[in-house]
Amino acid sequence: MKQLPGLFTRTQTEQKSAARPVLKSPREIELMRAAGRVVREVLTRVGERVRPGVTTGELNGTAEEIISAAGGEALFRGVRTDKVKFPFPAALCTSANDEIVHGIPGPRKLVEGDIISVDCGVRLKGYCGDAAMTFAVGAVRPAAQRLLDVTQSALDAAIALMRPGVAWSDVAATIQRIVESAGYSVVREFVGHGIGTQMHEEPKVPNYTDRKQRRSDFVLRPGLVLAVEPMVVAGDKDVVCRDPSGWTQVSRDGSWAAHFEHTVAVTERGADVLTDGR
Fold first, then answer.
1. Which 3 state secondary structure label does DSSP give 5?
2. DSSP 87
3. For the chain, give me the number of helices (H) and strands (E)?
4. What is the residue extent of each domain of the chain?
5. In the chain, fewer beta carbons within 10 Å around the N or the C end?
6. What are phi and psi of 194, to 5 degrees?
7. What digits encode the pLDDT tens for the residues 188-231?
8. Which residues of the chain have pLDDT under 70?
9. Could you confirm whether domain 12-266 is CATH 3.90.230.10?
10. How far out from the chain centre does Cα 178 lie?
11. Are 232 and 181 a contacting pair, CB within 8 Å?
12. Model pLDDT, residue 19
């Protein structure tokens, strides 16, 4: 049976630590918030640099400087799977237009009207934060802006529902409803994930629900920390890899995609976003 991976397939170390969800203490949640502050600074500064003519490699350079100055570790660098030709080489995933996830920063120059999804993960003092945003490059078509707005609203709605006792399938159904009612598709090939001392922990966190997914449903509990990340395509949901390296994933039909993510802790009071910069 095919597994639903997170944004990267787990390493062997992560697989061994992923037998069941590990609930985090208040102290651990604060350590994750500290990592999340670095992630938020990266995304804020990178977003300020997004404009026509800038290269994705230059955006990655900004991220590298911020993470290094904070004493953190870029989570994505060095990750590899059996489907790629080399370990991921950068601090950011930069995925433009029809690219959904895992885009490698490099010499590509952004063009007026593009959209660019920027995903950043940081480990600081042993704990991880992970978040993503999709930015408009200059003036974009109304259809592109609507895609960004709908994807952001799906993430916001998911976070608003997160509290102890809620089944994840109910949250995922809300994401799916918002996306599909707008005429878009939820990516199924890649999902969110638990997060803590490892980038990928249990449980898997889908952005849709169906009979098969409900068999692995879970209930939110205080101390559970999730990377919640709707990935939305304007057209069909199917994903392919046309990158010889095996990394960059694109929509099969060429439709543009958006990706927004936060690291979110479940507390007795509800959802606590750890990557909003507080």
1. coil
2. -
3. 6, 15
4. 12-266
5. N
6. -65, 160
7. 999 999 999 999 999 999 999 998 888 889 999 999 999 999 99
8. 1-19
9. yes
10. 18
11. no
12. 57
